[in-house]
Design brief:
It is built from seven helices and two strands. By secondary structure, the chain is mainly alpha-helical. A two-stranded antiparallel ribbon has the order 1-2.
Length: 132
Amino acid sequence: MGLKQCQVCNEAQSKYKCPSCYVPYCSLACFKNHKEFPCEKPSAQEDKTTAVSESLVEKPLIVDEPIEVLQKHQLDAIVSSNEIRDALNNKALQELVCSINCSPNPENELDKAMAEEAFHLFTDKILSTINP
């Protein structure tokens, strides 16, 4: 999770989040100030948006072989594929992709995911899309 500014004092980096509304704050004093006004837990949709945006923390890209990086035309083919888009509607597949992306050891998570039939079929669809 990336560092955010305290939403109460707007002066320091936040270290905590309100357990009710998830507003970031930096100290007990800011938490007490925040709690002077009622707050509510975000709706399920707002909660999902927060979870997704927080999982999009920039990670360093380490590539051993330049051939492992997809070219723009390959990425375009993936984006325009209805078959891949449909596959990504599968909740179990979404969870697998998120677990790989959010893992401190994504290569290990990727190896585990490849044992799942749904993920293996998904990667086959991607490969057939980028290597027609």
